[in-house]
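Entry, Tuesday afternoon. Goal for today is a structural model of the target with zinc ion bound, before we commit to ordering more compound. Inputs were pasted exactly as handed over by J.K., no edits. I checked the ligand SMILES twice against the vendor sheet because last time a stereocentre got dropped in transcription.
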Amino acid sequence: MATTPIQLNKTQQASQAARLAQVRPELATAYGVALGRWMGDRKLMLLGLPIVTQGYRSSAEQDAVFAQGRETPYQIHLLRKACGLDDVSAAEAKLIVTYKRGGQSNHNHLPSWALDVAHLQADGSVKWDNAALLLFARLMRAADERITWGADWDRDGQTVDEHFQDWPHFELVG
Ligand SMILES: [Zn+2]
């Protein structure tokens, strides 16, 4: 069975470059190395093409994300609209996705100390798959051992011992 390689269109390429330009250079470099290794592995590419879904996030955007799972959908809508973000789905509005308020997240620095990763699929959809993120995390840590993964905050190689697992999240602090 022939498979078409997943490729970013021009708009997606531009948005990836813009997000990475707002991330700490060492973190962006490590991401580039990990991405290159992933793309060079046909089996890994079957899981999708890694993309950065978030680099820098303003404090206002962070407050809007913090509101998910805590405020009404309408309040979330207003917070998102105020900082130019599209609405989240009703299901997403009910989910707590962060414990950090505006200014507290490592995404709120400029350049950002953190980036979030997902996998673009051949059909154009974006998937957050823990198993795929685990494999990507290994490449990120291999690229730069100072990187901390959000599903292994204590960096012991285990994900089950974490109180809060932020699977898409990678950060380089200090
Ligand atoms: Zn994150």
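The pocket of zinc ion is lined by residues 107, 114, 116, 166, 169 (CB under 6 Å).
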